[in-house]
Design brief:
The complex is a heterodimer of chains A (115) and B (111).
Chain A (H helix, E strand, L loop, with lengths): L4 E3 L2 E4 L5 E6 L6 E7 L6 E7 L2 E4 L8 E4 L6 E5 L8 E8 L9 E2 L3 E5 L1
Chain B lengths: L2 E3 L4 E5 L4 E3 L2 E3 L5 E7 L5 E7 L5 E3 L5 E5 L4 E6 L8 E9 L2 E4 L3 E6 L1
Parallel strand pairs in B: 2-12
Antiparallel strand pairs in B: 1-4, 3-9, 5-6, 5-10, 7-8, 8-9, 10-11, 10-12
The chains are: A mainly beta (115), B mainly beta (111).
């Protein structure tokens, strides 16, 4: 079974530029999550999708971050404009239905450096 | 609200020694608890999870954890460390549908 795919793996940009990350979840998984992992901290949930609808985006900085999941499969996360504090690893995860007992499976992440 | 506390940021053990990584949680409702491992430049991989069945949970790679409600703890143990166990370990709590992670502990294994 193929795992969660993410691209690119690494990205370096200047502050105020824009950047986009892509995620393809495990086939058949209805729920998709985007996490931000700052160095030395645990992952923090940014947004959760159930199929192509948003379940939770309470911690997404909506003035600069946006995410979409067209057709309920793959997803993109965009930052525009980027700030220095956005430097982090962005992890995508998916689970079967988003039920309480579901296991979340994580992709390898995209490491973003903002200069 | 829910939270996870992982005291310390780094644990070092000798190969063959006991591994003990501590995790304490706070939750207003009965929680589900998880341990994830992250190897360098990789995503998180589930080691084990507690979902209100047996309090002693066995996971992959010889790890296990015991849920102690009275102590609000879910410590991770392995009887004998192997070099390949060197990684970062995250404890997480799930209550009210959201998964909340601790800040992680880096495990080093000395030959």
């Amino acid at each position: 079974e193929a795992g969660v795919a993410q691209s690119p793996r690494y990205k370096i940009i200047e502050k105020r530029q824009s950047v986009a990350f892509w995620c393809n979840p495990i086939s058949g998984h209805a729920t998709l999550y985007w996490y931000q992992q700052i160095l030395g901290q645990g992952p923090k949930l940014l947004i959760q999708f159930q199929n192509n609808g948003v379940v939770d985006d309470s911690q997404l900085p909506k003035d600069r971050f946006s995410a979409e999941r067209l057709k309920g499969v793959d997803s993109t996360l965009k930052i525009q404009p980027a700030k220095l504090e956005d430097s982090a690893v962005y992890l995508c995860a998916s689970s079967l239905e988003g039920a309480f007992v579901d296991t979340q499976y994580f992709g390898p992440g995209t490491r973003l450096t903002v200069l | 609200a829910q939270s996870v506390t992982q005291l310390g940021s780094h644990v070092s053990v000798s190969e063959g020694a006991l591994v003990l990584l501590r995790c304490n949680y706070s939750s207003s409702v009965p929680p589900y608890l998880f341990w994830y491992v992250q190897y360098p430049n990789q995503g998180l991989q589930l080691l084990l999870k507690y979902t209100s069945a047996a309090t002693l949970v066995k996971g992959i790679n010889g790890f296990e954890a015991e849920f102690k409600k009275s102590e609000t703890s879910f410590h991770l143990t392995k009887p004998s460390a192997h070099m390949s166990d060197a990684a970062e370990y995250f404890c997480a709590v799930k209550a009210n549908s959201k998964l909340t992670f601790g800040k992680g502990i880096t495990l080093s294994v000395r030959p």
